[in-house]
Give the backbone structure.
Amino acid sequence: MFKIRRLALAAAAGLALCSAAAQAQAPGQGKTIGLAVANLQADFFNMIKQGVEAHGKEQGYKVVTVDAKGDATTQVNQIQDLIAQKIDALIYIPAGATAAAVPVRAARAANIPVVNVDRNVPTNPGDAFIYGQSVAATTELGKWICEQTKGQGKAVMIHGQRGTTPEVDRTKGFTDGLATCGMKISQHQWTERWSADEGNRIAQDMLQRDPSINVVIGQADGIAMGAAQAVKLAKLPQRVWVVGFDGDPGALVAVKNGTLDATATQQTWTMGKMAVDAVTSILAGKPVVKDQPTDAKLTLKSNVDQFIKQHP
């Protein structure tokens, strides 16, 4: 009995040592990442958040997440609070172009590294920038629209938040793609929150002004989903193509059932993981690639099932 007990104690001690060793090896052990998100009401940002939190936990980090709900002033205050909590690194998705540089300057003044995701700050870029290649993917979407319409008809674009990195890039990409067949965008309007309700309202206004529209481009899936509902309610005689961008879970289902015609699926989970890995490298004093693009895949009814099954 004594021998068995001694073996059991030895085994328990061994497990404790292994556990302690594993904790010591976790690069984020005892460190805190502040995650400042533009708007968690958007599936796209929510998925990046989940990627950061899941991989951060695996690496031993404590992740403190704040949601600006689309308001830049709120985000500045939130990041100042994170800095006061003495976070070790900041993962930052700016809530808008206005005042976006302020949190970066504040973090740098406190010697806190900054990793930007999806949106960068041209005047004060982060130590690393992780993003989807919006120009290339939206150019491909624009060319796909050309193929479907043979370049005939009128296209309108509902933008995201004016001046943000993805809004600028997606405007360029869609415009370049449509230019391959000579199709021009007849109406432009901007949103503040990239949301479905804004997409719905703006699309209704556009269709009332010009019922001959046959292409509606939403620069994000939320916008496109709202626009698709407006198109359905309008009951127009012509075929109207509606496309989005991001590959949000709800939008993927909408592509499968035909509510949306196409989107481009971004690697949201991967971007969250990459952000944590960039933080780990920076905190360890290792070199980190400043510009880290990811692919976004053209997503149609013919290939959407793979993204529904496993989102990248």
